[in-house]
Amino acid sequence: WHLYNRRYRPRQHGKVSMALASHWIKPSRTRLESLRECQCSLDHVLGWFAQPLFVDGDYPACMKERLGSRLPSFTQEEREQVRGTADFFALSHGATLSFQLINDSLKFGQLEDLDLRMLLYWVNEEYDKPPIFVMQSGWYVLGNTKTEDPKQMYYLKRFIAETLKSIVVDGVNVIGYTAWSLMDGFEWHREYGIRRGLYYVDFNTPDMKREPKTSATFYRNVIQKNGFPELPENKPAQGVFPCDFAWGVSANSIQVETAPTQFADPNIYLWNISNNGELIKLQGFSSPPLHRATHCADYATVRQQVDEIRQVGVNHFHFSLNWSALVPSGDVSHPNTTLLGYYRCFTHQLLLANVTPVVTLWHHTRQRSGLPAPLDTTNRWLNRKTPEAFANYARLCYRELGENVKVWITLNEPNDEMVSYQEGHQMLRAHALAWHVYDREFRRTQGGKVSLALHMDWVEPAFSFSREDVEPAKRVLDFFVGWFAEPIFGSGDYPAGMRSWLRQLNSLELPVFNEEDRKLVKGAYDFFAMSHFSSKLVTHAKEDSYTYTAMLEVQHMIDTTWIMSPRPVVPWGLRKALNWVKQHYSDVPVYVMANGVQEDPARFKDSLRVYYLYSYVNEALKAYSLDGVNLKGYFAYALNDQRDPGFGLYGQVHEEVIVKASLSNYRNIIQHNGFPVQGAAPQQCPASPQPCLGCRVLAKGPVVAFLTLVGSGVLITLGLIIYYMTKRHKEYY
User: Transmembrane residues, as ranges (predicted)?
Assistant: First the structure.
């Protein structure tokens, strides 16, 4: 450096530095000791050379303390000679140099992390804001990977994006970025087991044939655009949803009381005797039993839950019934009348609060079947009697709750990968039987609608321009969404691609719909309901056996720049999912029945959920206003952490309910019915009708109306007779 500085810099005007490689490390615990160990780890790996060059010409104090006499010492003259001999900070970061420390002890018990942005920030703060040139950055793929290297491409995207954030957000002076490496080669102790090049090298050809990989094309595009300019389709949309749009919140279940609160404890108490607000139980005394009918207002949990729902500002609430608890014996002629009464009260109170109940009959979970005990112990959904039993259970719910409930979900998320094709076949029959029960026996008098809700996360090709990846993405959607959707909303049979793929494998066979079942299932819907939470990428090239699905021959992966919590947050995936429904099933009404993100329940200022709800609702608006999707409603998931841990708009500390920041933000979106254009005239919507209980009674039929009219006339006549008789009596005296 001194040679160049003295003899060549005056006429060449160049720069000289030393490239230093480093990992990044984060504390294993939130303790000061862990932070010190992280600092010491970076001092041993990067500070070893960086501190003499950029700070004081000497080794870090931590190295001196830990290594003692094993560490050479600088003379004062050497310090002066070394200090400041770098014109910029040249940093290497990647798979071999920084992320796989050969000497594991250099981690000092902390956690190694692949975070280039944090490393750049640390260098900036530790060494007095030097110009930083990322000299070597990249990842690797397995040695059998050829020209399509999605893993390398998305890691490259991540590192470049982190560099850009470091410049724009953190103010770090990063002056350049260099991808490693130009072409595949011999990777030291990994030999030819991995490939790190932008160009594929065929080592088996005499001339070492080279071909550009997908990562090379991607890198060239980034360079041409000088980064990641915002795409027009990713800009937030402005506009509003229709006036009759269903704004909702979902919960897997509700809190149930087995008895009204004030009837549960017969004891007598004295209150506030010592002005301390305490209750003192009177020994030997109890209140007599109350011989009156239970009222809905007696249930404290009903009042509390309905009030929480009302405060969100929604006009719909979606929850699931408990089949196994409602009909524990499996015999619908002997239901749990207490629980049925509670559900009746709950839905009634929702209506009084101007909230429409949306009720699921059976909610699929992996932990338990949710079926009544007799069915649970006899082959569950493989039992041919289960669909008929489900239809009878549905009939009971329609009859007992249909006065309050006008939107029904038969099965919630039955299209789970753990469900066999034979089980799925019986579930389809169960749904169709339940739909026809409502259509035939209840629709005319109750006027409601029925469908099922499918789990539909989006699946995107890792290379959208490659037919070899578009086909696997289509295949995954056929197997996980079309599996249930096509028989009901489409042809009455499973997707053709699904059948042909399984036939080609000669392994699993799909059940066959006979003509009767085909007619039963096809068209058994009133709307398309989906649960959507996230998105994923798929490619045909096998890279990681843990995320490879052999039966479908697809490699699952994520874009490493996506926000994770713990699933990827990908707002545009919802818009693509909604468009898939439109493309396959035309103008079918669509409801997003559950959409939410998991976040630390202790984080009441849940900024991730605020971002998530804003972004996903905005993508739903694009699907409605720009793409013409017949979107009828959106339901945030979930109401509270107590029933759905980590997903709630409400948190809880001990017995105290906490309103999270996301609730206020979601309510604001609802109040504006979307994202109105600033300065535009407010949307004119008719006022919501207030509940009219008398009207609902009269609507039961002309006989009830006639009897009500006659009764009213009799009361008026009696009143007049009593009035005139009293008047004449006074005049007489």
Answer: 703-725
Peptide bond just before 369 cis, omega within 30 deg: no
Please list the helix, strand and coil fractions of the chain in percent, rounded to the nearest 5, in that order. 45, 20, 40
Is 400 among the domain residues? no
Give the torsion sign (CA, 23, 29, 32, 37): negative
Q: Do 161 and 137 meet the contact criterion of CB atoms below 8 Å apart?
A: no
Whether residue 385 is contained in a domain is answered as no
- Decide which of 201, 229, 257 is a domain's last residue: 229
Give 672's Cβ-side CA count (13 Å radius): 20
Cβ-contact 144, 541 below 8 angstroms = no
Half-sphere exposure at residue 621, Cβ-oriented, CA atoms within 13 angstroms = 25
Distance CA 494, CA 514 (A): 12
- We report the CATH number of the domain holding residue 196 as 3.20.20.80
pTM more than 0.70:
yes
Beta partners for 26? 111
Q: What is the DSSP string of 480-531?
A: IIIHHHHHHHSSSS--HHHHHHHHHHTS-------HHHHHHHTT--SSEEEE
CA dihedral 425, 430, 436, 437 (to 10 degrees): 170
pLDDT tens digit sequence for 413-468: 999 999 999 999 999 999 999 999 999 999 999 999 999 999 999 999 998 767 77
C-alpha–C-alpha distance, residues 355 and 309, integer Å = 8
pLDDT digits (tens, 9 = 90+) for 621-671: 999 999 999 999 999 999 999 999 999 999 988 889 999 999 999 999 999
| CA–CA separation, 174 and 650 (whole Å) | 42
**Count of CB atoms within 10 A of residue 475's CB?**
22
DSSP per-residue letters across 199-239: EEE-TTSTT--EEE-HHHHHHHHHHHHTS-PPPGGGSPP-E
Q: How many domains does the chain have?
A: 2
* Helix or strand (DSSP H, E) at 11: helix 9-12
Residue 33 lies in a domain: yes
Using DSSP's 3-state secondary structure scheme, residue 8 falls into: helix
Closest CA to 451 of 241, 252, 564, 591: 591
Given 192, 213, 229, the domain boundary residue is 229
Which two three-digit tokens encode residue 31? 């303790």
Whether the per-residue pLDDT at 731 is higher than 50: the answer is no
Instruction: Let me know if residue 37 belongs to a domain.
Output: yes
Sign of CA dihedral 49, 55, 56, 59: negative
Q: The domain containing residue 181 runs over which residues?
A: 1-229
